[in-house]
Structure formats: C-alpha cells, structure tokens
Amino acid sequence: MTERDEGVSVGDMSASSATIDVLVVAADVDAADATATAIGRRDDRFAVTAVAGPDEALHALDCEPFECVVSRYDLSEGHGVDLLDAVRDRHGDVPFVLLVEDGSATVASEAVSAGVDEYVPKGGFSDPFETLASRIDDAVSRARTEQRLADHLDRMTDAFCGLDDDWRLTYLNDHATDLLDRDAEELLGRRIWDCFRGLDGTALESELRSAMVTGEPTTVEYHADLIDADLEIDLYPSVTGLSAYFRDITERKERERELRELSDRLRLAVEGADVGVWDWDLRTDEVRFDDRWAEMLDHDPSEITFDLSEWEDRVHPDDLDSVWAALEAHFDGETEYYQFDHRLRSNHGDWLWIRDRGRVVERDDDGEPVRAVGIHLDVTEEKARERALERYRRLIDELPEGVCEYDADGRFTVVNDYVASTHGVSPVELTGRPSPLVDRIRETADGDPFTELVEGARETLSGTVELDLPDRSGAIVDFELQRLLIDGEFDGVLGISRDVTDERRRQRRLERTSARLEALYEGSPDMIDIHDEAGQIVDANRAMLAELSYGREDIVELAVWDIDEQMDRTEAFDVWDGLETGETVRLETTFRRADGTSLPVEVHVRRIDVQGESRFLASSRDISDRKAYERRIERENERLNEFASIVSHDLRNPLNVLSGYLHLAMETGNDDYYERCERALDEMERLIEDVLTLARQGDAVDDVEAIDLRELATRYAEDEFSPVDVPDGSTDGDVALPDGVSTDGEPDAGSGVSIDVAVEADQALFADAGRLKRLLGNLLRNAAEHGGSRVVIDDLPDGFYVADDGPGIPDDRLDAVFESGYSTSETGTGFGLAIVESIAEAHGWEVTLTASESGGARFEFTGVDRP
Questions:
Q1: Which pLDDT belongs to residue 168?
Q2: What is the DSSP letter of 829?
Q3: Kind and range of the H or E run holding 109
Q4: Residue 778: its pLDDT value, please?
Q5: CB 661 within 8 Å of CB 684
Q6: Residue 362, φ and ψ in degrees, nearest 5
Q7: Comparing C-alpha atoms, which of 843, 709, 705 is closest to residue 776?
Q8: Cα–Cα distance between 554 and 734 in angstroms, integer?
Q9: How many CA atoms lie within 13 A of 57 on its CB side?
Q10: At what angle are helices 709-720 and 769-785 packed, to 10 degrees?
C-alpha cells in the first residue's frame, strides 16, 4: 500500500468502538435529563451531558469539547435553529441533531437551510430515541472520518488535489500549494483549465480526460513548464470527480539520466578495455607492475623492473608536470582519488593514451602517504571495458545514496556500499536477504505494486516511506524502483533510495529561520542595505526603497556613493578595510533621494560574513528632526547670548545717563536734567521693546493667510504715517512719522520724520499679517532714520522687495547690518533690521541686501509662497 492509500483506508475506519461525548439541550432540566437518559440507554458508548436553554449549552461547549449536540426544537429562549446558528458561529462544524415533537415541513426546511446534520421528528418513529441514537452515531462517524481524511491529506508527503466532475478544484493540501507556488484561495472553486492555461492540448490533459471517462486509475509522468519540474502524477477517478497525487521527480529523473549516460559511457569503454595494475611503495619508490601492464606496452614482463622510473620515463614530457600535480593534490588530501589521462610510450615508440587512476591506501602516523595503488587503462583495448565496469562499480559504491538490484522476490542481488552501511553489514552479507524497503512498500500500498513491477504491469515505482533502519528508526526515505530488461527479458529491479530525514528537518528549520529573518529585515522601520567590498549595493529593504524612492531593481545598480553625498571612495575603503567581521562603525552623513532631494542620516555599518564572502550591513535612520532640533537650540543659544550682551552692555549706557542726570538734578535743582532723564528712560523703553520683539519674531510661523501685499502696505502706511503713492493715481505725499509713535503704532521717543512711500506690488502672498506689518514698518523707519526720502515696495518673481533712496550700505558693512545692536543712526536701537531678518526666517523666506537703483538700500525677500 502507498501512503495515500493508507490514508484513505484510515479515513474509512468505523468509530463504533470510541466513546462519543454528546450534549443534550432542552427547554428545562427535566426534559433534558429525560432525553439524555433515553439516549444513553440505547448506546453505552454515549457520554451524555444535559443542560437547559441555549445559554447553558453555549457555556458547556466553551468549557468542554463535545462531538455532537442534540437539541429540542422548542427551548425556553428561542428555538433549536437559533442555537444551531450560534453553535456554528462559535464552534464551527460540530455535528448538530435537531429533535422535534412532530414533523413539520416548515421546521424541516428551516433546519436544513440552517445546516443541521440530522433532523429527527419524535412522532415519526416507533422508537424515536433508537433512531436518534443511530443518527448521532452516523453524524459523529462522518465528522471523524472527514477530520481524519483532512489530517491525512495535510500530513502526507505527496502533493494532493481534488477535482469535481466539472473539473473544479475542490481541495489542495499544503504540499500542493508549495509545489505549484500558488495560493489555495486563488485556485479553489475554479476549473483547472482556467487556473493552468498551459494544460490545453498537452498529454496530461489527454490523460486527465481519459481517466475521468474510463474511471480507471493511472500514473502519468509529465514535465510541467509552469514550474519547470518533472512530476509523477497518480490519478484516481471516482463518481464525484478525480483525485490527483503528484510529486516532484526532477532530481530523480536527472539522476536516472546521469546514470544512463554513465552506464552507456562505461559500457562502451568496457568493449575495448586493456588494464594494467601498479602498486607503489612511496617510502622506497618501488612500484610493482603486473604482467598485463607490461604487455599493454608491448613488453615482456621480465623486461620491467619494479621501479618508479619504469613509468615516469615513459610519460610524455608535455604531460609529466600535470600528472605530478594531480598526484601531489591527492597525496595532500585535496582529491578523493588520483586520476589523470596522459600519454605513455610503448615498446614500439608510439604513444598510448592511458587513464591512470589510483589512491592512497595506507598512511603513517603523521598522515603521510605510505602506499598507493592504481591502474593503467588503455581506453582502446577490449580489457579496458572490463576495467571500466570495475570503475563503474566503484562510482556506484561512492554515490551518497543507495543503489541496488532486487530479484523477483524482493531480495538483494547487488548492493553498493551505501546500502550495506545503512543496514550495518557488508555488501556480501546483505546479498540474498529480503529488502526491508520492499517489505515496507508492500505494507503501505494497496495491492502489491512490486509484483506489478516485476510482471511488467508498471515500469516504475516511486514514493516516500518511513523505514526503521538499524541505526535509526522512523527514517524518511525517498525511493525509485525501475524494471530492468536485458535483451528484452526481465533481469531484476533497479532500486535507488536516499535517506532524506535530516534534509527534510534541516529544510524546515531553514525555512522558519529564513522567514523570521526576512520579516525582521523587511519589517524594520530603519533603512537597511547590504553592499560588497567594492561598494556595490546588493540588496535593500522596503524602508530604504520607500524613503529614497527607488525600485529594488534600480538601487542594486548603484554604488554606496551614488546615494551618500558626503562619501569619499578612498576614505570609505579605508573604513571598510579597518573593520573586523562583526565590528560596527557609526557615521553621520547625507543621503540623496531619487528625485535629487536630500536627508541627513545616522548610519551604523557592520562587517558580516555571507558564505565566506565579506559584506557590509548598513542600518540608516533619518535624523532630520534631530538636526532641526540641534539647529533650533543653536539659534536659541545665539539669541540668548545676544540678549545677555544687550542687557549687560546696551542697557548700561542709558542707565548711566539716567543716573548721572538724576544726580545733577538733585545737586542743582535744575528741571532740565529731569527732561534728559525722561529721554534716557524713553531710550531704554525702546531698547527693551525691540529686544522683546526680536525674541518673539524668531518663532516659526504656523498660521498664515493669503495677503494682498499692495493693500496691506498701502493701508498700513496711511494708518501709521500719511497717504502713500500708488500706481493707480492716488495722491503723492510725505509720510510723516509722528512724535512718540514707533513704526508698529506703539509710543516711541524721538523726533518726527517724513518719507514718501510708493507701493507698486500687485501680487498676493502667504504670510502672518501682524509680522509682515512689523517688517514693513521697520524698513520704513530704517530708511527715514538714515536720511532716505522715498521707499518703493514692488514684486519679485518669487517674492517682493523694499528699496529706499538713502545713502545705502557700504560693501564692507553688508554682512553686519542684520546683527543685533548694529546701527549707524544716533536715534536707532540697532535691532530693527535684526527683527526684519528674524521675521523673514520665521516665514521661511531668504532676505538679501543689495543697492537700489538710486544708490540706497534694497531688501529682497525670496522663497515666498503665493496662493
């Protein structure tokens, strides 16, 4: 029996001997107990629990597993069909039997539609509880059988799929979805011809349709181009459809082809083989050649001395160095055996091509070779065929899998060393014994497939079984049996087997480990890339691809310095060369995105070993927020330093003036000194107001609105000073700054000034209106205080400018005008332009000072957003 046949038979086993846990539900406890007692009397296998009402039933199912629920239709709350719906929602397909007092077509239809497993009308049978017990047994048996069959199909090593009579896929086990590399949800319920378009017109389609028509099981070998694999498919038709068991035999077919090719080559060589043997004592360089070796070279054996020179002097000069290199490699353990094809001179002076093969058979305590033996094979002579057969046998013995031949009764006739070692005996001892593998195949299969193979009913037999071997139990073995014919007659069964237990377990471990590592790599919020020693990127995770806007196929075409703007190749190689495997270095640099934008990053580079090759794992994190915070703190510190300087220095001057004039006033009684004290106080108030304004204006602007610059500038100048000059013909006039009024409308000490304002701007912009007013006011006051008589406000392509006709700023002073406290005016505090710059920075604008057309100062504001 095969594994799949065993699974089917297990699924058909009766559950008659097992205890069945049954939950009985009725409207009250008495009715439930009565029903439970009646059921228990009919069948002693039933372990019955009685409850009253749906709530107690659901609670019981939550606490204990039951294999069947029997419910009365009429319950204290609702009815049995309602309970059925609740059970299905919470506990799946547990068998459910509905017991009603009298048969009702309406109730029956409702129950069937809801998915009840059995429906028993109490009044419809002479012994309704006997019928109820039988229905419970049937429902539980079906559920157990279906569960065992499903478990078996998921456990079996073959891939399995089920087809209905309309060619729709009804079931696929995990092995099938893995082999086909498709999701079950994608395939189930669809016709196989729609899922696999390539089947149309193939031999497999013909076999599938033939099996469905004839109803006869069959086995098909088919090369599936879709997954590029050779498959062996067993088809089992039934009245409901078709079951297909299939397995990947690509490796087996390749081994078969290799063995056939090797067998053909060796068979051809055997036809003309001519072999001589040598036995070499490496301590004395004594080499014993057999008679055939001498005859092969057309010498009489008596003419050959037992010395290495007998061979070495005959080797072709062009081959000698290569021959010795191959020998030394074998002596040093680099090769399993020595083999080399070279030319050897015969007694007649002609050159024979010799296949020289040997191996070290004895070493001393230090591992140095002591004795080596080998053969010389003349590939053109008949004896070479016999020697080739010996070589073929050696190759078979050295295969890392079992190769053997069985007779018609399943006994070993020929075994290689691998088979003998797995059974713990020598090949001679194993010959003639029954094969445990053949016995196991017969135990697990339906019928006797080995006999079918012997009799010619089938040509091959393959699969996987669990086998108890002398050195281990429960070994998993892949096998392939093939009927051998010699001259058209049965000669035996060729068996190829391989212990795949460790391989299967290792594969599962690797798959789990790989899945975990891939999840960590791809799911990391940090950017991760891997590059080689040349700086070429070989892989990157999703976070890096998303952040830098590259596709995976694009980024692997780049080197590290293609995305790292600050990397110097020479310095990078020095850093990488200095890292030991497992060592990490931290860097701060700037990455360039695919669109040309940049971001600052912190990078941790670690040297790792990947299958013997050095790689570098770089984990990178965007530190834009941290850098912005650092810059903000730096600016705040600079501002605090400015404030400290102002408080410690600039306020000290008016305080000294105030103190001096107060002292003079007290000494002389002259009231004029008090007026001068008042002016000193006014100067201090202006200075303090400007310092506070400078501190407040440095904050970033979060709330902006669309502002008409022309309207705001015109209204502000008119409200604060006087009418302004605008392009639409409004009246020109001087703007007089009243005494005691600053440019932001607050009281100010100082004499009145006048200035002409021309507003020519006509584009809107996004800004904070209050801060924009302050900026314009400070520029107007700056122009007036420094001797200007006219100011022009106009648009730029990406902003606006304010230009005056004053004396202008010397070139060597352009960088100093925005510094806090800087002023060339006797009445200014030196903070007006510093406030202008802070307001511009808060908006994200760039302010530039140049000369106006009249030689005055021109302040340009760019980077301005417009509606």
A1: 93
A2: -
A3: helix 105-114
A4: 80
A5: no
A6: -150, 135
A7: 709
A8: 65
A9: 33
A10: 60
71-103 exposure pattern, b = at least 16 Cβ within 10 A, e = fewer: bbbebeeebbbebbeebeeeeeebbbbbbbeee
Residue among 615, 589, 613, 614 at smallest CA distance from 530: 615
Give dist(CA 853, CA 856) in Å, integer: 7
Check if the beta carbon of residue 94 is closer than 8 Å to that of residue 66: yes
Q: Which two tokens stand for residue 211?
A: 């099996």
DSSP assignment letter at 188:
T
Taking the alpha carbons of 817, 821, 823, 829 in that order, is the dihedral positive or negative?
Answer: positive
**3-class state of residue 748 by DSSP:** coil
H-helix or E-strand spanning residue 106: helix 105-114
- Give the tokens for residue 683: 């100067």
Indicate the burial class of 509 (C-beta count within 10 angstroms; 0-12, 13-18, 19 or more). Answer: exposed
Chain center to CA of 728:
67
Q: How high is the pLDDT of residue 279?
A: 92
> Is-contact 270 248, C-beta < 8 A?
no
| Torsion sign, CA atoms 659, 663, 669, 673 | negative
| Alpha-carbon span 547 to 558, nearest angstrom | 16
Q: What is the pLDDT of residue 472?
A: 77
pLDDT for 269: 44
**Residue 338: per-residue pLDDT:** 92
Q: 91-95: long-range contacts (C-beta < 8 A, 24 or more apart)?
A: 91/61, 93/143, 94/61, 94/66, 94/67, 94/68, 94/69, 94/143, 95/67, 95/68, 95/69, 95/136, 95/139, 95/140, 95/142, 95/143
Q: What pLDDT shows up at residue 120? A: 85
Burial class (CB in 10 A: 0-12, 13-18, 19+), 798: middle
Positions of the chain with pLDDT under 50: 1-16, 263, 266-273, 383-384, 649, 723-724, 726, 729-752, 821, 826-828
- pLDDT at residue number 43: 84
Packed helices 672-697 and 769-785: angle between N→C axes, nearest 10 degrees: 140
- What distance, in Å, lies between the first and last C-alpha atoms of the chain? 82
Give the separation between CA 89 and CA 83, rounded to whole angstroms: 10
* Unique residue bearing structure tokens 């309704």: 128
790/5 Cα distance (integer angstroms): 104
Contacts of 485 (CB under 8 A, 6+ apart): 491
Q: How far apart are CA 766 and CA 866, in angstroms?
A: 6
How far apart are the C-alpha atoms of 602 and 621, rounded to whole Å?
5
**103 is written with which tokens?**
């048969």
Order of all β-strands in the sheet with 402-406: 412-415, 402-406, 489-499, 472-486, 460-469
Cα separation, 94 vs 588, in Å, equals: 62
Which among 372, 396, 394, 409 has a CA at the least distance from the CA of 285?
372
Check if the beta carbon of residue 23 is closer than 8 Å to that of residue 52.
Answer: no
What is the DSSP secondary structure assignment for residue 616, as one 8-state letter? E
In 714-856, where do the E strands start and end? 735-737, 753-759, 764-767, 790-796, 799-804, 846-851
Count the helices and strands in the chain (H runs, E runs): 29, 33
Structure tokens at 46: 């039933």
pLDDT at 764: 93
CA 712/CA 708 separation, integer angstroms = 6
